[in-house]
Amino acid sequence: MDAETSIDRSFASWFAVRPMRRGAGIAVGRAGCSPPRGGRNVYDGTVVTDSAGHATVALPDWFEALNSDFRYQLTVIGQFAHAIVASEIHNNSFTIATDKPGVKVSWQVTGIRQDAWAKAHRIPVEEDRPKTEQGRYLHPELFGRGREGAIAERPKPARRPQQ
Hints:
Layout: E1 3-8, E2 11-17, E3 26-32, E4 40-48, E5 54-58, H1 63-66, E6 67-77, E7 83-90, E8 93-98, E9 104-113, H2 116-120
Protein backbone atom coordinates (compact mmCIF):
# COMPACT_ATOMS: atom_id res chain seq x y z
CA MET A 1 0.00 0.00 0.00
CA ASP A 2 1.31 3.46 -0.88
CA ALA A 3 0.50 6.38 1.40
CA GLU A 4 1.22 10.06 1.84
CA THR A 5 0.59 12.09 4.99
CA SER A 6 0.38 15.82 5.63
CA ILE A 7 0.10 17.58 8.97
CA ASP A 8 -2.86 19.88 9.48
CA ARG A 9 -2.79 21.35 13.00
CA SER A 10 -3.58 18.62 15.53
CA PHE A 11 -4.65 16.03 12.97
CA ALA A 12 -2.90 14.31 10.10
CA SER A 13 -4.65 13.95 6.77
CA TRP A 14 -3.74 10.82 4.90
CA PHE A 15 -4.19 9.56 1.39
CA ALA A 16 -3.56 5.90 0.63
CA VAL A 17 -3.87 3.83 -2.51
CA ARG A 18 -6.91 1.61 -1.94
CA PRO A 19 -5.57 -1.90 -1.36
CA MET A 20 -8.23 -3.62 -3.45
CA ARG A 21 -8.14 -1.08 -6.31
CA ARG A 22 -4.48 -0.16 -6.83
CA GLY A 23 -4.20 2.73 -9.23
CA ALA A 24 -7.97 3.16 -9.44
CA GLY A 25 -8.88 4.57 -6.04
CA ILE A 26 -7.58 6.55 -3.10
CA ALA A 27 -8.72 6.20 0.51
CA VAL A 28 -8.73 9.54 2.36
CA GLY A 29 -8.96 10.12 6.10
CA ARG A 30 -7.86 12.14 9.08
CA ALA A 31 -6.11 10.59 12.05
CA GLY A 32 -5.40 11.82 15.53
CA CYS A 33 -2.28 10.61 17.28
CA SER A 34 -2.45 7.88 19.87
CA PRO A 35 0.97 6.88 21.22
CA PRO A 36 2.76 4.58 21.44
CA ARG A 37 1.94 3.40 17.93
CA GLY A 38 0.33 6.56 16.53
CA GLY A 39 -1.87 6.89 13.47
CA ARG A 40 -5.13 5.74 15.05
CA ASN A 41 -8.01 6.11 12.61
CA VAL A 42 -11.57 6.70 13.86
CA TYR A 43 -14.73 5.47 12.15
CA ASP A 44 -18.26 5.96 13.48
CA GLY A 45 -21.95 5.83 12.71
CA THR A 46 -25.35 4.69 13.96
CA VAL A 47 -27.46 1.58 13.36
CA VAL A 48 -30.85 0.31 14.52
CA THR A 49 -31.06 -3.33 15.54
CA ASP A 50 -33.56 -5.61 13.79
CA SER A 51 -36.45 -7.57 15.36
CA ALA A 52 -33.94 -10.06 16.81
CA GLY A 53 -31.78 -7.26 18.30
CA HIS A 54 -28.94 -7.59 15.74
CA ALA A 55 -27.29 -5.13 13.38
CA THR A 56 -24.35 -5.60 11.04
CA VAL A 57 -22.05 -2.62 10.50
CA ALA A 58 -20.42 -2.61 7.05
CA LEU A 59 -17.06 -0.85 6.87
CA PRO A 60 -15.18 0.27 3.72
CA ASP A 61 -13.83 -2.63 1.64
CA TRP A 62 -10.26 -1.54 2.46
CA PHE A 63 -10.81 -1.26 6.24
CA GLU A 64 -8.94 -4.39 7.39
CA ALA A 65 -6.15 -3.91 4.86
CA LEU A 66 -5.48 -0.40 6.23
CA ASN A 67 -6.08 -0.93 9.97
CA SER A 68 -5.29 -3.32 12.84
CA ASP A 69 -5.62 -3.46 16.64
CA PHE A 70 -9.31 -2.48 16.73
CA ARG A 71 -11.14 -0.82 19.62
CA TYR A 72 -14.93 -0.53 19.91
CA GLN A 73 -17.31 1.89 21.64
CA LEU A 74 -21.11 1.54 21.71
CA THR A 75 -23.73 3.94 23.07
CA VAL A 76 -27.45 3.18 23.19
CA ILE A 77 -29.63 6.13 22.17
CA GLY A 78 -33.17 6.92 23.30
CA GLN A 79 -33.87 4.04 25.68
CA PHE A 80 -32.31 1.83 28.31
CA ALA A 81 -30.88 -1.29 26.72
CA HIS A 82 -27.77 -3.41 26.74
CA ALA A 83 -25.57 -3.43 23.64
CA ILE A 84 -22.53 -5.57 22.89
CA VAL A 85 -20.16 -6.21 20.02
CA ALA A 86 -21.52 -9.66 19.13
CA SER A 87 -18.85 -10.41 16.56
CA GLU A 88 -15.61 -8.54 16.00
CA ILE A 89 -14.43 -7.16 12.67
CA HIS A 90 -14.12 -9.82 9.99
CA ASN A 91 -14.46 -9.27 6.23
CA ASN A 92 -14.78 -5.51 6.88
CA SER A 93 -17.87 -5.73 9.09
CA PHE A 94 -18.88 -6.40 12.68
CA THR A 95 -22.14 -7.23 14.46
CA ILE A 96 -23.88 -5.46 17.32
CA ALA A 97 -26.47 -7.21 19.53
CA THR A 98 -28.93 -5.61 21.93
CA ASP A 99 -31.24 -7.15 24.51
CA LYS A 100 -34.27 -5.53 22.79
CA PRO A 101 -35.29 -5.09 19.14
CA GLY A 102 -35.27 -1.73 17.38
CA VAL A 103 -32.54 -0.14 19.48
CA LYS A 104 -30.59 2.76 17.98
CA VAL A 105 -26.87 2.36 18.70
CA SER A 106 -24.09 4.85 18.07
CA TRP A 107 -20.84 3.01 17.34
CA GLN A 108 -17.20 3.99 17.05
CA VAL A 109 -14.31 1.81 15.91
CA THR A 110 -10.67 2.80 15.95
CA GLY A 111 -7.76 1.06 14.27
CA ILE A 112 -4.02 1.57 13.98
CA ARG A 113 -2.83 2.31 10.44
CA GLN A 114 -0.79 -0.60 9.14
CA ASP A 115 0.20 0.62 5.69
CA ALA A 116 3.92 0.72 4.83
CA TRP A 117 4.27 4.51 5.22
CA ALA A 118 2.59 4.56 8.63
CA LYS A 119 4.70 1.63 9.87
CA ALA A 120 7.90 3.37 8.72
CA HIS A 121 6.96 6.72 10.32
CA ARG A 122 5.52 5.90 13.74
CA ILE A 123 5.40 8.82 16.15
CA PRO A 124 7.63 8.28 19.20
CA VAL A 125 5.95 8.58 22.60
CA GLU A 126 8.72 10.85 23.85
CA GLU A 127 11.99 12.21 22.53
CA ASP A 128 14.67 14.58 23.79
CA ARG A 129 14.49 18.17 22.62
CA PRO A 130 17.59 19.68 21.00
CA LYS A 131 19.95 21.26 23.55
CA THR A 132 19.21 24.71 22.09
CA GLU A 133 15.49 24.29 22.92
CA GLN A 134 15.80 22.78 26.39
CA GLY A 135 14.39 25.13 29.03
CA ARG A 136 12.65 27.16 26.31
CA TYR A 137 8.97 27.12 25.31
CA LEU A 138 6.68 28.00 22.43
CA HIS A 139 4.62 30.02 24.95
CA PRO A 140 7.07 30.94 27.75
CA GLU A 141 4.51 33.22 29.41
CA LEU A 142 2.53 30.12 30.39
CA PHE A 143 5.56 28.97 32.42
CA GLY A 144 6.28 32.31 34.10
CA ARG A 145 9.04 33.21 31.63
CA GLY A 146 9.54 36.26 29.47
CA ARG A 147 10.29 36.37 25.75
CA GLU A 148 13.88 35.34 26.49
CA GLY A 149 12.45 31.88 27.29
CA ALA A 150 10.91 31.47 23.82
CA ILE A 151 12.11 28.80 21.40
CA ALA A 152 11.80 31.28 18.55
CA GLU A 153 10.69 34.87 18.24
CA ARG A 154 7.13 34.96 16.97
CA PRO A 155 5.89 37.90 14.93
CA LYS A 156 3.24 40.00 16.60
CA PRO A 157 -0.18 39.97 14.93
CA ALA A 158 -0.79 42.96 12.67
CA ARG A 159 -3.20 45.51 14.09
CA ARG A 160 -6.24 46.44 12.09
CA PRO A 161 -6.62 50.12 11.33
CA GLN A 162 -9.48 51.67 13.28
CA GLN A 163 -12.35 52.98 11.23
